[in-house]
Amino acid sequence: xxxxxxxxxxxxxxxxxxxxxxxxxxxxxxxxxxxxxxxxxxxxxxxxxxxxxxxxxxxxxxxxxxxxxxxxxxxxxxxxxxxxxxxxxxxxxxxxxxxxxxxxxxxxxxxxxxxxxxxxxxxxxxxxxxxxxxxxxxxxxxxxxxxxxxxxxxxxxxxxxxxxxxxxxxxxxxxxxxxxxxxxxxxxxxxxxxxxxxxxxxxxxxxxxxxxxxxxxxxxxxxxxxxxxxxxxxxxxxxxxxxxxxxxxxxxxxxxxxxxxxxxxxxxxxxxxxxxxxxxxxxxxxxxxxxxxxxxxxxxxxxxxxxxxxxxxxxxxxxxxxxxxxxxxxxxxxxxxxxxxxxxxxxxxxxxxxxxxxxxxxxxxxxxxxxxxxxxxxx
Length: 379
Description:
Elements: E1 7-8, E2 14-19, H1 36-48, E3 52-57, H2 60-65, H3 77-96, E4 103-108, H4 110-114, H5 116-131, E5 135-140, H6 146-151, H7 154-164, E6 169-174, E7 195-196, H8 201-205, H9 219-231, E8 235-240, H10 244-251, E9 254-255, E10 257-260, H11 266-276, E11 283-286, H12 288-295, E12 305-309, E13 317-324, E14 327-335, H13 340-346, H14 354-358, E15 372-374
Parallel strand pairs: 2-3, 2-6, 3-5, 4-5, 6-8, 7-10, 11-13
Antiparallel strand pairs: 1-9, 8-10, 11-12, 13-14, 14-15
Helix pairs in contact: 1-10, 7-9
């Protein structure tokens, strides 16, 4: 069978690395560091090089199952929820023992990412964890998310997280070498697919069934994840996380596997979404100085705000308009960190006063520079 060639990884500074259950468990189902050790070394080497890695790790349910004996049906949702709770701490402990940096456990459900306020909370927490120098380890909150446990998978969760934190690259460590034109163990004519420019119906047809005893996702979920990442301007690489030679390549900036291209840059995809996504009817009016700062790539601070029109919730997309001769000129759109009532109270005040005015703080900015898009070229 033809092998994948060695190629350079796409340029990246922040990546999401997804590791499947099959790479973290031995034949008996117990957690094993055989593959995790090399993956952890890649994370550590990346951090030394000044890069950031967020880890989406499966394995909690498998680890929990190895700890107890039960007569309950293997497919029972209640059992899987209990096993996830039993195994989650062991999975986190495995990674903490291998990574010379503080690791942070973050459990998410799809509801956290659908609800705008919770989406913004999750985004801010993850970005702050990265700023603090930790390695966030993310999993679905299987113990309570019944719907997600039925429909969710960590491949798609990893793609969603990559978009959430504005990652440059999604890396999927699997127990297969990459995407093949057909199932390699069933079709001797199957050939490796080195690059996928777009995930079409023909590409999806190449996906086989799940090939692991412990995982919940097969090749199709990996293709879905790559497609989701591409729509956010994020490239994806799929490689064999159980192949030591492939893992050694990662630390040197190379990989063997399939690369899924993104049709546009991450920044362009996010800016497009901010510009065109449905927003609230609210407007934050700003002074000329704040307008210049926004157009120069800065965040919106309370001091540059002169008023608020309409109502909006935290996490809504609002219009930012410069006031000039009693006329409001649209300058930008962005996700607001505070609701309309809170912004009214903070208008014109210093960032250091936020907590004393509101009794709490979501941060020093009203709209972060990464969460806004300019609507005019100059001003």
